[in-house]
Design a protein that fits this description.
The two termini are 33 Å apart. The chain has one domain: Rossmann fold (3-Layer(aba) Sandwich). It contains eight helices and seven strands, in the order βαβαβαβαβαβαααβ. 46% of the residues lie in helices and 15% in strands. The chain has 250 residues and is α/β, with parallel strands linked by helices. A seven-stranded parallel beta sheet has the order 3-2-1-4-5-6-7, sandwiched between helices. Helix 3 packs parallel to helix 4.
């Protein structure tokens, strides 16, 4: 059995770094045509030029800031004009940590806008396209902090629990149309962001709490997403797959 995305079009949000970028790169390597998003104008311009220079018409970059209602609506209007989107990976996300009594209402609005409202709006729009075509695979990138939690993550955890709820209900509603909806909850992943915000000592300390004894590599998360997004997945829907090296079960 081989995963083959030739002839499929995939939308990946948050595709410029970390897990989102890995998923996008892996989808491309397996033949998918891609619609990718970023909130960085200069980055989108540079990446679009790279695509054009390579003569690769299978990648389309769209600038969207999910914190900006006008930008978000313009993105959704553009998506609505596309006749065929087979796969949707909701990977864009933000986090700001603080104790509950010190959290800011602005942080609540921003984190929920990106982590929960955007996937809801995208799923609503994408599902209409997928229903018309009788096929779809949607994967929401959640988190172990949507299964368990820890201090200073009240808003982030709320959004990731909510994303799992969106996944479950969407799966029930869309299953009759051959649209399967699942979420993947990564644990500690060795991304560039992780390396920037944690010291070597902090990473070693966290890794010691994981039964496997290390952080995940981004491709280890991507492999799970690829299966869920592929035509090999014909019956798995409404599930949250935890990929954390056994951390949650400790």
């Amino acid at each position: 059995m081989k995963i083959d995305f030739r002839g499929k079009t995939a939308l990946v949000t948050g595709a410029t770094g970390g897990i989102g970028k890995q998923i996008a790169d892996d989808l491309a390597s397996l033949g998918a045509d891609l619609i990718l998003t970023s909130s960085n104008k200069e980055q989108v311009a540079a990446l679009s030029k790279e695509v054009n220079r390579a003569g690769n018409v299978s990648k389309k970059w769209i600038l969207v800031d999910f914190l900006n209602k006008e930008s978000r609506h313009a993105f959704l209007d553009e998506i609505a004009t596309i006749e065929k989107i087979d796969i949707c990976i909701n990977s864009a996300g933000i986090n700001r940590i603080n104790y509950i009594d010190e959290t800011l209402l602005d942080d609540w609005h921003d984190i929920t806008a990106v982590n929960l409202e955007a996937p809801f709006l995208i799923t609503r729009a994408i599902s209409r396209i997928m229903k018309a075509n009788g096929y779809g695979r949607i994967v929401n990138i959640a988190s172990i902090w949507g299964v368990i939690s820890k201090a200073k993550r009240s808003i982030y955890t709320t959004t990731k629990f909510g994303l799992r709820g969106l996944t479950t209900t969407s799966a029930i509603e869309l299953a009759p149309y051959n649209i399967l909806v699942n979420s993947v909850s990564p644990g500690f992943v060795l991304t560039e962001l992780t390396k920037r915000i944690l010291t070597e000592e902090e990473m070693t300390q966290l890794a010691s709490q994981v039964p496997i004894g290390r952080f995940a590599e981004p491709e280890e998360i991507s492999r799970v997403v690829l299966f869920l997004a592929s035509s090999l997945n014909t019956y798995l829907t409404g599930q949250n797959i935890i990929v954390d090296g056994g951390f949650v079960d400790v």
